[in-house]
Amino acid sequence: MLLRNLSNLDDLAYYGKKVLMRVDFNVTIGKDNKIGEDYRIRMTIPSIDYLTKRGAKLILMSHLGRPKKTDEIKAKQTDKIQQHTTSEIDINAIKQFSLLPVAKRLSELIQMYNVSFIDDCIGPKVQKEIDKMDRGDILLLENLRFYSGEELNEYNFSKELASLADIYVNDAFSVSHRKHASIYGAARLFDTKLAGLNLKKELEYLSMVKDDPVKPFILVVGGSKIKDKIGALENLLPKIDKLLVGGAMAYTFLNANGVRTGDSPIDYEHFQWVKNALSNYRDKIILPIDNIVTSQSFLKLKQEESNEKKEEGKEGNDNSRFDSLSSSVSSLPSLVSSSSSSVSLNKGAIEEGLLGVDIGIETVQQYSSIISQNSNGLVVWIGPMGVFEIGLFRNGTNNIAKSMALAFWRGSKTIIGGGDTLDALKKAEVSELEVTHVSTGGGATLKFLAGDEMPGIEVLNKIP
Ligand code: AMP
Fold first, then answer.
1. How far, in Å, is the centroid of ligand 1 from the Cα of 11?
2. 40, 57, 105, 145: which is the annotated catalytic residue?
3. Average of pLDDT values for 290-319?
4. What's the pLDDT score for residue 324?
5. Fewer CB within 10 Å, N- or C-terminus of the chain?
6. Is 67's pLDDT higher than 60?
7. How many Å apart are CA 210 and CA 125, to the nearest integer?
8. pLDDT digits over 252-277, tens only?
9. 34-58 b/e (C-beta count within 10 Å ≥ 16 → b)
10. Alpha-helical runs (H) found in 140-189
11. Does residue 322 register a pLDDT over 70?
């Protein structure tokens, strides 16, 4: 689909104009108000630069998490004030989802610009702040999802947003599958609506994957939810040369192929689809030949420990001993045998009472060599190979990340998508610069590859 993007307008078209740009600043913010991974913020810098350098007054809008709706809270507060009760808890609920820490991070990243923040996203207070803006200034609005009108795509809320600016830009691919007010309703109301540079880049790479993939094309798929990936797989299977399956979903594939999988999670709802895919694409689909297995109770214990560490902000401490080992595939047997009798390397059928939590050594070697030897081709990776949040079960994911980097250095186009992938890259100490393209959208990437409707993209071609 041909979309108008920022570079299609004359430079002067932005001079002194108010530009409302939808970005995705939905990042994790710690209890100390520190931003976790700021990739999503950094991705918007090219569009921010482009617009501010051309004299636009740039108004940024985003959602953050799933907050309670302040319009509903305010209604309740009015009740409480009438009943003379405190509303302190409600204020904390607001603070937790405020975009103020993001505004601070953004101004640290682009120090030469004047970045300000306003604690609302519509109404007279916001209008007044915009009136004060100079050319090249940046204003970040408060979390859109404080208003129920955002997710409900309400006309009045959309109209209020649209009244803030002259030009609309969508630079948030990761939310473009949603028909929300800031992505669809408000965008519709603008005469001039454009794709931002990040959105443009996402569409170029993902359209290539979907419609005209570079060959040989290898798809690596993992994670747990088959349902989310069926659309993309149906579209891509005819075009790919090899599909490497890992993660929890591999056990449904193995089971459908007649292998005993013990207590590994099996997706019976999509079992028939998997069986059909296996029979239609027998030569293309490659499944794990060995796995790291453990008991349900040990997995639960490790998950609880990992969650506690996350809450305390000490994530990953207990993994240090495995991190150094996991960088080398050959050291895994000693890791498995010495770390705990609760974890073992298993070839073939998995016994009752055990479940697969990562791909095994031979599988890692096989997958790694297929990926890293694909020079001048295309490798797309979506979803982790195991329960990678836990150091013990991260070896497969780490090695796939490293093989992706090797394929990149050997001249392949490499694309990583899915919600966990940036985290997986970071844990494997692979830089995002060693990947051709990191897709910021989890659900959006899969929906786009499935050929589903993308309201936030389609609206850019609509006449108001
Ligand atoms: P998805 O959202 O479908 O990409 O799934 C990502 C999640 O799959 C991660 O949180 C992983 O911990 C989980 N996962 C990957 N492999 C396994 C496995 N073998 N057993 C259970 N969960 C897994």
1. 46
2. 40
3. 79
4. 35
5. N
6. yes
7. 44
8. 999 999 999 999 999 999 999 999 99
9. ebeebebbebbebbbebbbebebbb
10. 148-151, 155-162, 186-188
11. no
Which one-letter amino acid corresponds to residue 281?
Y
Choose which residue among 224, 306, 350, 357 to substitute to test ligand 1 binding: the one with the highest number of ligand atoms within 8 A of its C-beta.
224
The DSSP symbol for 5 reads B
- Spacing, Cα 224 to ligand 1 middle (Å): 4
Asked if 397 and 427 touch (Cβ cutoff 8 Å), the reply is yes
* 281/25 Cα distance (integer angstroms): 39
Q: Please give the model's pTM, rounded to 2 decimal places.
A: 0.89
The predicted pLDDT at position 75 comes to: 64
Q: Is the CB of 149 under 6 A from ligand 1?
A: no
In percent, how much of the chain has pLDDT > 70? 88
Contact (Cβ atoms closer than 8 angstroms) between residue 50 and residue 200: no
What is the spatial distance between Cα 245 and Cα 264, in angstroms, rounded to a whole number? 15
> Which tokens go with 143?
């979390």
Query: Amino acid identity, residue 205?
Result: Y
Tell me if 274 sits within 8 A of 226, measured CB to CB: yes
Exposure b/e, 255-284, CB count within 10 A at least 16 = b: bbeebebbbbebbeebeebbeebbeeeeeb
Length of the chain: 464
Give ∠ CA 174-155-26 in degrees, rounded to 5.
25
The preferred substitution site among 387, 392, 427 for testing ligand 1, maximizing ligand atoms within 8 Å of CB, is 387
Of 419, 441, 442, 456, which one is the catalytic site residue? 419
Ligand 1 centroid – CA 248 distance (Å): 6
